[in-house]
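Deliverable D5.2: sample structural annotation.
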Amino acid sequence: MRMQRILIVSRMSLETAPRLETYLQSAMQWHPTSNVDRPWSAKVGTDRWELQVNDFPAEQMYTLWINGERVGNFDDWPKKWKRESPVRPEQTKKPALSGGLSKL
């Protein structure tokens, strides 16, 4: 008995794939957020775009959200997208005093 591979594509991925591809080809400037799960956001007209970092490699690397709606997942950062480094929690803490412990 010969086994055949069956490719299962969800209805959602068929509907969002063309739109996602268009967005991935657009020039975009991303800004860091304080959200660990969605470390970058962008304002496009009146829309808020967010990028979620997923559990890679079990899932695709990123998910694009626009106005709270999941647009789709992708792995490779688009060449036309520019981003600043995300804000890490330790960057929001007050800096340590220089010179070590205060002398009593």
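Annotation notes: The CA atoms of residues 24 and 78 lie 6 Å apart. The chain has one helix and six strands.
The annotation will be released with the project's public dataset once the embargo ends.
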